[in-house]
């Protein structure tokens, strides 16, 4: 039984820490023990007890002061795409197996400043490319609900560690669904904010126009704490949203907006969501949607209606085309971002070569896995002369139209609600029939990524059958509406208990 299972929220844990019922050091020691004994999950790429305990000691000092930050002493861990000075940063790749960054990512720095205690680095698909964590050079992560199943990806280690009670929250990144999909498949909550809200500085790039960091935790309420601490303008990230003069920074904006909506929803006790229009995209309920996922999502929609929300049917006509556009744009950007791994400055270098060109090509061929190589090939092809207009430019046109379609939908509703993934977690070690068919499973998540919209996942049920596996509900908001999304999700979680379910003995 995890010590964390005694506390159902960050606030409850914070109360125990602040009242000295528990010290950050005791908690960190216990969680390190848990994380070590859960090695079969393969959620962590690295633990470093000495550093974790030093952070815990500093958190205890912070906790001894009045008004300690709410995250002081809270055990977390970072997806292994955020660079850290203390731990190696592998991005799940052989290429960076021994890489130690000379600086910390902004997200790592910000969460350390508010006293969180990091247990280490979390396994993920190689360079965050994948949907089931099987492309990691360090082996697949197992789903805490059933060890024979994948936790989803690419942030599978983050989702598994939270679901298994090893940490209270984790950082993750989402380029086309990598926060939402593993959160859904592991029965936890996760949010990808509006593009530009959280700094990408020190987050290893996959598709730079899509990459966005965000937190995973047990509940929407906990996500508010994490996201507001992680967010904010950062001059070291050129895509970071600038704070307008006289306006609160992004972290404060999210907190204020959440509080506003939280109070709004509290007014009418029997119908807290009265006046909220939830748009249900009809294209999210097509043939590929597994029946038990569809049934759980339908039940969640009914629950939201019971709380007073009004259901509106909307259309996102380019849902299917979004997958194609995403798998042109993201590999194109990846092929460019990954060109820096040439064995010259850092990363793996082949032992034998006879000239510079051979050194580069051998280093890359030896250190990149199949999925990453596939993306580099696709990306290079769609950017090459003669194909650029037909693929890359065309995909950008589709992207523009997707942005417009979302705005059309938001003229009819406040929030979009639907499934996160069409299927449940997949069994591990099933041979991959056709790699591109796996890409189709990103159908409901890539649209919000291409449009840069905030989107989140909350648990909404379980499958029935041989394995009990979690199902997630996706909520997509308009730009900067994280506060409303989180308050809506919180309201849903106050009336349901899916987010409180834990895998056995966790
Ligand atoms: N599954 C998607 C991909 O492989 C999304 C990954 C992500 O969001 N990092 O590109």
From TrEMBL:
Keywords: ATP-binding, Ligase, Nucleotide-binding, Protein biosynthesis. One of its GO terms (molecular function) is glutaminyl-tRNA synthase (glutamine-hydrolyzing) activity. One of its GO terms (cellular component) is glutamyl-tRNA(Gln) amidotransferase complex. InterPro entries: Amidase, Amidase_CS, Amidase_dom, AS_sf, GatA. GO terms for biological process: translation. It comes from the Bacteria. Its EC number is 6.3.5.7. Heterotrimer of A, B and C subunits. Belongs to the amidase family. GatA subfamily. This is Glutamyl-tRNA(Gln) amidotransferase subunit A. It comes from Candidatus Paenalcaligenes intestinipullorum. The lineage of its organism: Bacteria, Pseudomonadati, Pseudomonadota, Betaproteobacteria, Burkholderiales.
